[in-house]
Amino acid sequence: MTRHTPAAIFNILRLAALLAVLAVPRHATAQIYDTWHLVLIDGQRSGWMHSREEDLGYGLKTTNRFQIEISRGEANILIRLESEFLETYEGRAVHMVTTHELGAAPVKKTFRWLDDGSITAIIEEDGVSTTQTIPGIRGDWLPPAAARRVLRQYLADRAPRFDYLVLDVMGGPATTKIQSEYLGPAVIEAVGKKIPVATLRTTQSTSPGVVTTEHIDSDGIPAQTELSLGGLTLTVVRSEREVALAPFEPAEILVNTFVTPSRAIADPRSLRAATYVLSLPEGVMPNLPDTGVQRVARIDERRARITINMNSVAPANPEELQDGAYYMGSQMVNWRDDEVGRLAERAIRGDRTLPPHQQAERARRFVSTYIRTKSLDVGLASASETCRTREGDCTEHAVLLAAMLRYYGVPSRIASGLIYAEEFAGRARIFGYHMWTQALIKDADGVLRWVDLDATLPPNTPFDATHIALSISPMNDGDVINSMATLAPLLGRLEIEVESTAHDPAPAPVSR
C-alpha cells in the first residue's frame, strides 16, 4: 500500500520557520531573556517553543528551540528545530547554527561569516560532514538582536506601518522582508494573567499570502502569535516552562488532509487517463504545474481542470537539460554519498551502458523493494539517511530515487501532489497527499520528456493517472520548505470532481 506524506508536514515546517524569525524575545537591551511558549495546532496542544537572549560579554546570542509532535494515523512524528545566532553589539553577524530533526538523524548546519563577507557553511548529518564557502548575503539586512531593537523602536513610535529585512534563520543564509501593520493595543490572557500588548499584522516575503497576528508586550516579547497556512492554524501562547513541557496527546493531521472525490475510481493503479476539476470553496486556486502527462487549464479564480493522459507525454523544454538544479547534490538529494552510489550501481547491476530510461526504471523498482519498512514514523529523511535505515514513506522513496538518478547523470526533481487510494488509514476511496520522482529523459525518438516514476508502487506498477501534481521542486538546499508553498492553501479545503476516467485511452497529440 502506498504511504502518503501529507503536505501538512511541510506546512508545519514553514510555520515553524516563520516563527523562527518572528516569535523571539524583542528587547533592545543586552540582559538575558528566557521565555517559554505553548504551541497549538487548530487549538490542540502540539508542542512548545523556548526563546533565549544572552549577553556573552563580547556579543549577543539568540537561541530558539521549537518542538512539535503530530500524529499520522497510528504513527507519531517528532519535529525539532533549533537555531543559535551570534552577533556583535553593532549588529554584525558572526555565526549561525541550525539543527532540524525530521528523520532519524538530525541535520546540523553551521554558518560562519568571514571578513570578506563570504560564509563558510558546514553541513553535518549521520556522521558525514561537508564544508563549502558560499557568497555573502546581499542587502541591508538585520541579524536577530539588531532586528529586535529596530522593532521595539517602531512600536515605541506607534508607527502605523513599517518593514525591514531580516535573516530567514531556518531557511538558510537568506533574507526575508518583514512587513508589519500596527493594529492597536489589546489585552491577552497568558501565564494566568492579563497582559497589555501591541497587536501587529505581519507578513514575510518568503511566504506570500501568509498573515501572522502578533501580540507583543511592553518589553517587546510576544505574548501570543497566530498564523494559518492552508487548513492549519498554529497558535503560540506564553507559558511557564513546566506547562510547556507537560505531556500531551499529539494532534492528528493525516486523515484531516484526505480529499474525498465526487465519485470513486475503479481499478486506480491501471488508470491511464483522467480529467479532474480541482476547486476551493473560497480564495484563489494557486497556479498548478504542467508536467509530461499533466495539463492544467484554469476555469476561473477558484477552479482548475487537470487532464492526465499517460499515452500523451509532452516534450520538455530543452533548456531544462542545462539547469544545474536538477543535477545538484543537496542535503536532501545527496547523490555524492558513497552509499547512495553503491545502491545506484546495484540497481543497474553495474551496467552503465544501459540507456537512461532503463536506468531510471531499474532504480525505481530497486527503491520500491529496498525500503523494507514502509513507515509513517519518519518525518522527512534525506537520501543519505534512507539508504542506511531502509525506512520511510513516499518522501523517502522519492528523494532516494532522485539521488540515484542524479548519480547516473539523469536530471531529476520531486513532484508533490495527490494520489487516489481505495483504502488508507481507515478511510476508503480518497485522495491523499503524496510525493514521487520525475526524470528528464530522451525517449526512443530522441525527444526530451519528464517521466514520472513512483517508487512507492510495486515493481510492476510504475505509475497511473490518479497522480495529480500540485508542485514540483529539485529539493535543493533552501528550497525544500518554500517549494511547498503551492500546497499551503489547499490543505483541508480542496475539492475534487472526477469528470472522466479511462483505462486504455487513445494517444492524443501534445504541444508546448
Brief digest:
The chain is α+β, with helices and mostly antiparallel strands.
Strand content: 35-45%
Mean pLDDT across the residues is 85
Which regions have little confidence, pLDDT < 50, spanning 5+ residues? 1-6, 23-30
Span of the ends, CA to CA: 35 Å
Describe what you observe in this structure.
The protein is of the alpha+beta class and 512 residues long. Helices cover 15% and strands 41% of the residues. The protein has 7 helices and 25 strands. The strands form 4 sheets. It has a 15-stranded mixed beta sheet that branches. Strands 17-18-16-25 form a 4-stranded antiparallel beta sheet, with no helix packed on it. Strand 9 and strand 10 form a beta hairpin. Helix 4 packs across helix 7, helix 5 packs antiparallel against helix 7 and helix 6 packs across helix 7. The longest helix has 16 residues. The radius of gyration is 24 Å and the shape is globular.
How is the secondary structure organized here?
Elements: H1 7-22, E1 33-41, E2 44-55, E3 60-72, E4 75-87, E5 93-101, E6 107-113, E7 119-125, E8 128-134, H2 144-156, E9 161-168, E10 174-190, E11 193-204, E12 212-216, E13 222-229, E14 232-239, H3 241-244, E15 251-252, E16 273-279, E17 294-298, E18 303-309, H4 338-347, H5 356-370, E19 373-374, H6 383-389, E20 391-392, H7 394-407, E21 412-424, E22 427-442, E23 448-453, E24 468-473, E25 495-502
Parallel strand pairs: 3-15, 19-20
Antiparallel strand pairs: 1-2, 1-14, 2-3, 3-4, 4-5, 5-6, 6-7, 7-8, 9-10, 10-11, 11-12, 12-13, 13-14, 16-18, 16-25, 17-18, 21-22, 21-24, 22-23
Helix pairs in contact: 4-7, 5-7, 6-7
